[in-house]
Specification:
The complex is a heterodimer of chains A (106) and B (488). Chain A has 106 residues and is an all-alpha fold. Chain A is 39% helix and 0% strand. Chain A has a domain of 45 residues: Orthogonal Bundle (Histone, subunit A), CATH 1.10.20.60. Chain B is an alpha/beta fold. In chain B, 39% of the residues lie in helices and 13% in strands. The longest helix of chain B has 22 residues. The chains are: A mainly alpha (106), B alpha/beta (488).
């Protein structure tokens, strides 16, 4: 993993992340990402062959306790917040639905 | 407004202990409502310069204080935090109060619910004064990434308070609250606590419910208390810890009586000292202070043992890969549709998403989203994200091996004391390296306490990080009490 992030990479990733970067933002971002990703190549020094990835500490705690996996809650239907509490936070709404600009340009 | 010139104004003041305040309130000698009013007066005086609070929740605080005074007047038993004035980091939601997470994108957001930690504090009688400044979405190590301006360190207002929970640390150091809540993803409780000279707690991952925490990196995020002394921090953790059906990652393990456990002497405990935390880059004055703290632990009857954590240097790159990857997913929800900022200049839906996010997020948040998106994108997943998750296991298992030999591990919390505002702001990588001693425990999910351990010649606080195994908070508190008692 040797990083060489190009301007095109920054633009592609920004598009994936739904970020519209201004032209002035792109170049500093490119150089920051290269510096940071270069530093991250230090991880190549470690041989991780056969190491099971650890997604979160609860897996490790369960392994230590000899449990198969950490407990998940039962999948039960429960009430969510009332619409009348939630909708007032919407930037644009008719009270029942969120309103957004048109999705497809005709 | 204070009459003396700003440069000589003193901001540091130690709050009274929970036990002392409890006695005053239960006896009726001090009214909780008067106490809250006196805190608001001090906030009005000191906050314009320190910028620790972003918003105040006066009505709610005074109503709660009056409830506590009514209980006291009737002679009813008071809950454990009755009338205690506290502040809440602005990444934790409170119903009807602004919850910005330090971001423009949530500037006008007033959440319709309370986070579980707030519910538990109020059920325990705490009076919540307001919301505390932080780095935007808890991303930062200096509080300079807040969209609402940096917090200043009460010890030296030209310096940063640390981050991301800078407001939470500064508020306790300046007695703008008796105690506060913060969140810690890669050091965001421990490092600011050490910079401001207060106690900060990193609970075991899953120990405290995160329902209502505005998420940054879910496999790392934790909520924990700041206080002026170790016993009070232990009491607060006891109030907020424990299973919550609203957070599936919250552990059902029983909650110990941390405050009582912290009263037990540390004599007989085996303390590990990892050489990897005392190498190149460690400020010599910080090293001297921590070595005095270690000597004090030996004097208190602890056994000091060297331990080896050879992969420590890989923790920062592994951490920033895991954290930014998760952040890129967590922050996808801010899209201008359901709440938060929407850019007015958008003809189509996809334009609206992109403009709202570009205008709403600050530079560091964008940097981390892009880094995380890059690391997760097609062709890079195995090389970056998967590799980092494998290194996380190596780091975590290394800690478990060390904890087979010792009960706790002590290190400096930060390689240097509080730095000047602006000193590292132009160099994101240098800022990431400030987290070198804290991100290891974050990745491993273990717990820790940072406790004041002396100061530099210039009077800047030094913090000692006491780490313990998963669910080993009681041990960490005992060791931290011994360091505190030695008054290094």
């Amino acid at each position: 993993m040797t990083a060489k992030v190009t301007v095109a990479d920054v633009e592609r990733v920004a598009e994936l992340a739904h970020l519209k970067l201004s032209p002035e933002e792109i170049e500093p971002m490119q150089s920051d990402l290269n510096a940071i990703l270069d530093y991250m190549t230090e991880l190549n020094e470690i041989d991780t062959t056969g190491i099971e990835p650890l997604a979160q500490a609860s897996e490790l705690m369960a392994e230590q306790a000899g449990a198969a996996r950490s407990g998940l809650r039962a999948d039960r239907l429960e009430a969510s917040l009332p619409r009348s509490d939630v909708m007032p936070q919407a930037p644009e709404t008719d009270g029942a639905f969120f309103k957004v600009p048109k999705v497809i340009e005709r | 407004m204070p009459s003396e010139p700003k440069s000589t104004e003193n901001y540091v003041e130690k709050p009274k202990t929970l036990a002392a305040l409890r006695e005053e309130i239960s006896s009726g000698r001090v009214k909780a409502a008067d106490l809250a009013a006196s805190y608001y007066a001090r906030i009005e005086q000191k906050n314009p310069r320190l910028n620790a609070y972003l918003s105040l929740t006066r009505e709610r605080a005074l109503a709660q204080a009056e409830r506590m005074d009514d209980l006291a007047a009737k002679g009813d038993p008071l809950p454990p935090l009755a009338g205690i004035p506290m502040g809440i980091k602005d990444v934790l939601v409170m119903r009807g109060a602004p919850s910005t997470a330090g971001s423009r994108i949530l500037e006008n957001y007033e959440p319709p619910y309370d986070c579980t930690t707030v519910t538990r504090l109020e059920a325990a009688g705490a009076v919540l004064l307001g919301k505390l400044n932080c780095d935007e979405f808890a991303m930062g190590s200096s509080n300079e990434n807040s969209a609402f301006g940096p917090v200043r360190n009460p010890v030296d207002p030209d310096r940063v308070p640390g981050g991301s929970s800078g407001g939470s640390a500064a508020a306790v150091a300046a007695n703008l609250a008796v105690a506060t809540l913060g969140s810690d993803t890669g050091g965001s409780i421990r490092q600011p606590a050490s910079f401001c000279g207060v106690v900060g707690v990193l609970p075991t991952w899953g120990r405290v419910s995160r329902y209502g925490l505005i998420a940054y990196a879910s496999s790392l995020d934790r909520i924990g208390p700041f206080a002026a002394n170790v016993r009070d921090a232990a009491t607060l953790l006891g109030v907020i810890a424990g299973h919550d059906p609203k957070d599936a990652t919250c552990s059902a393990a029983p909650v110990e009586n941390y405050a009582a456990e912290s009263d037990k002497p540390a004599a007989g405990l085996r303390i590990g000292v990892p050489a990897e935390y005392f190498g190149e880059g460690l400020d010599t004055e910080v090293r001297d202070a921590i070595e005095k703290g270690i000597a004090a632990l030996e004097g208190a009857g602890c056994t000091i043992k060297p331990v080896s954590l050879p992969h420590t240097k890989y923790a920062v790159p592994a951490y920033y890969l895991v954290a930014t990857a998760e952040a890129s997913a967590n922050l996808a929800r801010f899209d201008g549709v359901r709440y938060g900022y929407r850019s007015p200049r958008s003809a189509t839906l996809s334009d609206m998403y992109a403009h709202s996010r570009d205008e709403g997020f600050g530079a560091e948040v964008k940097r981390r989203i892009l880094l995380g998106t890059y690391a997760l994108s097609a062709g890079y997943y195995d090389a970056y994200y998967l590799k980092a998750q494998q290194v996380r296991r190596i780091l975590a298992e290394e800690f478990l091996r060390a904890f087979a030999e010792v009960d706790a591990i002590v290190t400096p919390t930060s390689p240097f004391p509080a730095f000047k505002i602006g000193e590292k702001a132009g160099d994101p990588l240098a800022m990431y390296l400030a987290d070198i001693y804290t991100v290891t425990a974050s990745l491993a999910g273990i717990c820790g306490v940072t406790v004041p351990c002396g100061a530099t010649k210039a009077g800047l606080p030094v913090g000692m990080q006491v780490l313990a195994r998963h669910m080993g908070e009681s041990t960490a508190f005992r060791v931290a009490r011994a360091v505190e008692a030695s008054a290094v």
